[in-house]
Amino acid sequence: MPRVIVATGNRGKLAEIRSALDLSGWEFVTAPDLGSSTLDVEETGSTFEENARLKAQAYHETFGLPALADDSGLEVDALGGEPGVYSSRYAGLDATDADNNAKLLAALEGVPAGQRGARFRSVIVYIDADGAETVVDGACEGSIGVEAHGSGGFGYDPIFLPSQAPGRTMADLGMAEKNAISHRGAALRALRGVLGE
């Protein structure tokens, strides 16, 4: 059974990855599943791909297993693409999801609905047992609402209105529905096509 170490401490992200890949005989684990602590990999890259590669390489080298790392974030048109690679730490290094959402909503205060376009973007780097690398990506277009809504998901999900689910935030969607339209879901489907060959 192929065992793949997933470079994340985020249980929500892990659940999405396991649900979207769902490859028979494959096991996707995290460092805590192996009795270790999550690696603190410094994300010094200027792109999602560079950061995903840094994490995948660190986990592959540390655990000696195939490794999968995702780097993703939100790009807001009215903010010139911010928060981008800084999405998880937009309001500071120790910021919570609520802190990041509040800062983003404040930055967009007064911006009309038609100018609040945004997209979630995800890049996944997979390194196999032999060290060969596969890179896939995905995007989900939408806009930023004026207030948080919904109880599912994580990160910016409560304020992101995906174009494919009018009137609902990403946090209003169930796991299967979210995976069907999300940036990470698109990237994972591309990866599943590669791994399932």
Explain what this protein looks like in three dimensions.
The chain contains five helices and six strands, in the order βαβαβαβββαα. With 197 residues, the chain is an alpha/beta fold. The chain has one domain: Maf protein (Alpha-Beta Complex), CATH 3.90.950.10. A six-stranded mixed β-sheet has the order 2-1-3-4-5-6. The longest helix has 16 residues, at 48-63.
Brief synopsis:
With 197 residues, the protein is an alpha/beta fold.
Instruction: Give the termini distance in whole angstroms.
Output: 15 Å
The CATH architecture classification is: Alpha-Beta Complex
Mean pLDDT across the residues is 94
Largest sheet: 6 strands, mixed
Class by alpha and beta content:
alpha/beta
Quaternary organisation of the protein chains = single chain
- Count the E strands: 6
Beta-strand fraction estimate = 15-25%
Helix percent reads 25-40%
Q: What are the key terms here?
A:
197 residues, alpha/beta, Maf protein, 6-stranded mixed β-sheet, 29% helix, globular
